[in-house]
Structures are given as structure tokens and as C-alpha cells.
Amino acid sequence: MNVSRRHLLKAAALGSASLAAPQIVSRAFAAEPIKVGALYSQTGNLAVAEKLLANGVSMAVAEINAAGGVFGRPVEVVVEDGASDPKTFSEKASKLIVKDKIMTVFGCHTSASRKAVLPIFEKRGAMLFYQTHYEGFECSRNVIYSGAVPNHQLANYIPWIVKTLGKKKFFIVGSNYIYPREMAKVSKKLIEAAGAQWVADEYLELGHSEWAVMVKKIKESGADVVLSNVVGNSIIAFYREFKNQGISQAEIPICATVTSEIEIAAMGADYAAGSYTSFPYFMSLDMPGNKSFIERFRKFVNDPKQVTYHSLEAAYFQVFLWKQAVEKTKDLSAQGIRTGIAGESYEAPGGAVTIDADDLHCWLTPRIGQWQADGQSKVVDAYPHPIKPLPYFAYGETESNLFCTSKGLDTSKLKI
Question: How many CB atoms lie within 10 A of CB 285?
């Protein structure tokens, strides 16, 4: 499934303009496009967010082509629909890598879809760029992780909730799959270390829309704060039911790790006003690069009211990190990308980002935002600079290295 005709025509026009760029060695070589994949759901319950990720990748490629392409060659995006289904993601990944012979794919949104495609990338020697915040504890030489890991979202968040909000009894709630469960595992350790307690750890299936019973449990639990790892459309139903049952965000605030501008816009700002989310990027960041990014993205998708969010920003900036890596090594292979991208930095819309040479994850700036009545966040706490990713944050050094060694990848020796 290719990108829309309008976006293809725009990218093609920008790409053709790049053929006269000074980097060109021969016109025959320059005329051959470099194909990359964009594997995101265009249908199903995750499509609302994932279509934007595909657009973020396509916009970055269009901008790269407008600036002369890569090696003086235009870049072509082949978009495939994962259909919000891990099995379909696996099938489409095989199609991109085996049939289309594409060696770099930007894609997946959930950990379930990433886990489904990972064996294909590792077997075929291709590279996946994964932009979504995730639970960590994964070791692969075939993935560049540009989204947040647990220490980017929780190491500052839990102590801040306890110290600044004065909350001591956490009700942990999430969707029933790997990301929410692993985030809860990290959270419990941090809650206990902060001198607080968790009173419950509950899950409902991904996409679940009936939250009355769960919200009633929260009301009756004695909790004074909710740590939400709820994902997808369930977020909207959860927040609406929370307000419908008369729970005040001042009394029992929802402190989320997933809720973004996308879900706030879909549910209506009133339902989330006063609640919190921890992300490295918020649309409200008052930075010149971010304002320009928002303006350009809205123009690209032809929607003057389109919101941006963390995973979209990462989907966009990771394409430029890929470009820098392959131009450094003059090598489009996964090995060339690994070598070239280690330690690479880029000035993203939300500030500087760097790919850590040790584990191929991204240095990011932790921030906490409180949702306002206008649907935007007010950043109430932020680190002054990006911090090192700790993808094995929930585990001891020995356990992490043992796991990675069993996967054929010792974290202590990952540096290229």
C-alpha cells in the first residue's frame, strides 16, 4: 500500500529536483532511487496514530529529497499497512525485505508488532528504525530505537509524583500486553524506592472500551493517584469514564506514560485537563525548531489543526539520523548503518538527540506535561539536557548482560 497520490507526487517532484545536486557522480547512478519501507497501520484501531507516523517518515524523506537526496539519489518510500495486527506486520515486513529488497524499514508502533517482525529483520540482515517509547529489555543489532525507554519516562516521573504532588498510593492500570506490564514492573521498584506503595496492578485487553468496573475499583481502592499504561482507543474510554464517575484530577490524578496529544484531541480536552503525561516531546514546546516542524507537518498533511506528538517527532527525526549514518559510511546495509549511526546526533524539533553507541537507543530529554483545557500540555518539570538511555533499567547488570549474551549480543560489547 503506497502513500497517497498527493504525497507521492510531492515527493517525486522534490526528488526530481535533487538530480542536479552537486553530489552526483553520474546521472545513471543518481537516477536510481534508494527505497525505504514505512510499515505502519493504515487500518484498524491503531491507524489514527500510525498514519501520522507514516506521514512523518514521508515528510522527512520529501525534505531530504528537496535538499539533494542521499548520495545525490532520491529516496522513495514504500508504505505497507500492518492493519493493527502483529501477524499482518510480520507478513508485510517479509514483503518489504524479501520481495522489494528493502534493507531499511521505519515502522511498527506497538511492542507486539515490533516483536512480530524482529525475527525477519535479524534473519535477513535488514534494519528496523523503531520510534515508539517502549519497555526496554531488548537486544538486537537490527533495530535502532529512537523513542523513549523506561528511565526517560519513569525515573523522573515517579519521584516527582510522590514529592511534588504528594501522592503515596498508586493504582497501576494498563492494557494487557508487554509494554504496560513491563512499565509496571519498573514503576513498582521506583514507587517503593520513593517511599510510596502500589495498591493495585490491573489490566484490560487492548482496545477494551467498557471501563465502568475498573474505574469503580479505582474509586474504592484508597489510591490517591493512577499510573496509567493504557494504550490506544482504550485511553479515550478510560478518561471519559473517569470523569463520568465524578473523579477529580486534583483528587486522584491520572499520571500516564502513553496518553498524548492524539488521544487528548480524540477524547476532548475537558476529560484530561489536570492529568499528566511523561514524554520527551510535547507539541507545546516553545522552541523555534518545534514551531517550524508543526507548521511544515500541518502543511504536508493539509490539515491546519493537526496535532503532533512524541512518536511522530521520533518517526520524523530518525530518518535524518539514517541519512547521516549511510552518508558517513557510504553503505546502505544494516552493518553500515550500525557503524555510521553510533554516536550520531541531530537537532530534532524537541531538541538534541543522540544514538547511544553502546545499545543503539536514543539520548532524550525527560519532561512531564500537565494537560490543559485547550488540549495542550504545560511542561511542569524537565531535565536541562538529554540523558543516556537505560533500556535494562528494571533489571540488574548481571541479569541484563546474561539475557543479551543469550541473544548473541553482550551490551558491554555492542559499541561498533
Answer: 23
Helix axes 178-193, 111-124, angle to 10 degrees: 110
> Which residue type is seen at 113?
S
What is the edge-to-edge ordering of all strands in the sheet holding 75-81? 75-81, 34-40, 104-107, 127-130, 143-145
C-alpha cell at 401: 548482560
Q: Are strands 367-371 and 276-279 parallel, antiparallel or unpaired?
A: antiparallel
What H or E segment, with its residue span, contains residue 290? helix 288-300
108 with 49: CB under 8 angstroms?
Answer: no
Q: Walk along the chain (416 residues) and give the pLDDT tens digit of each residue.
A: 333 333 433 333 333 333 222 222 233 334 699 999 999 999 998 888 899 999 999 999 999 999 999 999 999 999 999 999 999 999 999 999 999 999 999 999 999 899 999 999 999 999 999 999 999 988 899 999 999 999 999 999 999 999 999 999 999 999 998 899 999 999 999 999 999 999 999 999 988 999 999 999 999 999 999 999 999 889 999 999 999 999 999 999 999 999 999 999 999 999 999 999 999 999 999 999 999 999 999 999 999 999 999 999 999 999 999 999 999 999 999 999 999 999 999 999 999 999 999 899 999 999 999 999 999 999 999 999 999 999 986 655 434 443 443 344 443 333 33
Between vectors from CA 14 to CA 13 and to CA 19, what angle results, nearest 5°? 95
**Half-sphere exposure (Cβ direction) of 34: Cα atoms closer than 13 Å:** 27
Please tell me whether residue 174 adopts helix, strand or coil conformation. strand
Grid cell of 385 as nine digits: 539536557
Q: Which residue has the cell 517502549?
A: 134
> Would strands 276-279 and 254-256 be described as parallel, antiparallel, or unpaired?
parallel
